[in-house]
């Protein structure tokens, strides 16, 4: 249903928001090999997700947070 789809979009946007705004280039990720623990709010999953989004899309990755609310 449309309600479930809307809630899903907002949940994904909240996940991206937490991952991107707590991004640290020193966290373990695809572009950084380190033995330190991730400081990202979502842990290692958030660290890899934010690194991947920022590597592919740059600062346009932050639009993934806005789009579900506009949709």
Q: Residue-averaged pLDDT, rounded?
A: 92
Rg from C-alpha positions?
Answer: 13 Å
Question: Which percent band covers the strand fraction?
Answer: under 5%
Helix fraction, binned, reads 55-70%
Q: What is the count of DSSP helices, taking H or I runs of 4+ residues?
A: 3
Low-confidence stretches: none
SSE order, one letter for each helix or strand: HHH
Keywords:
71 residues; mainly alpha
Quick structural summary:
It contains 3 helices and no strands. Helices cover 61% and strands 0% of the residues.
Structure description:
The protein is mostly helical. It has helices spanning 2-21, 43-57, 63-70. Helix 1 packs antiparallel against helix 3. The radius of gyration is 13 Å and the shape is elongated. The protein starts with a helix and ends with a helix. The model has no long low-confidence stretch (mean pLDDT 92).
SSE topology sketch:
Elements: H1 2-21, H2 43-57, H3 63-70
């Amino acid at each position: 249903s449309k309600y479930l789809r809307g809630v899903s979009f907002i949940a994904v946007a909240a996940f991206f928001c937490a991952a991107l705004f707590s991004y640290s280039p020193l966290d373990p990720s695809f572009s950084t090999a380190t033995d330190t623990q991730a400081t990202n709010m979502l842990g290692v999953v958030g660290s890899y997700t934010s690194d991947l989004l920022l590597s592919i899309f740059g600062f346009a990755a932050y639009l993934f947070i806005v789009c579900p609310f506009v949709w």
